[in-house]
Amino acid sequence: MEIILKQDVQKLGFKDDVVTVKPGYGRNYLIPQGLAVLATPSAKKVLAENLKQRAHKEAKLIADAKVVAEALKAIEIKIAVKAGGDKLFGSVTNQDLAEVFAKNGQEIDRKFIASGVIKRLGKYAATVRLHRDVIVEVDYEVIAEQE
Known about the structure:
The protein is an alpha+beta fold. Helix content is 35%, strand content 33%. Strand 5 and strand 6 form a beta hairpin. It is elongated, with a radius of gyration of 20 Å. The N and C termini lie far apart (58 Å).
């Protein structure tokens, strides 16, 4: 079953992508939730026209995302957490990285940050998706909090 996505769906595709899914997934979940529409020939024509009109706006979005990517690479990130030896009391997650970015003036939703769950001190890398075409890798360090 071919559908056109109306929103980004994780592990499936981005907004305005034409994707093929199993009929039950499309009919019972994606379409009723408002995440997709059926990809009829007329809907595909409308989509093509909309994409053509939106192409120059998309170029500006990509340029803005690249500027933000450079700003993120320039930030030196050190996250101080309570630790006993090498192990952390708790963990460092995407939410913690999103808060650090917000303190540095870059509002990024935690859904677009992929770092995993960190439970030890050390240096790590996180992947931040700013746009479907702009993905940046940010290095950060988890250090012990000084009391």
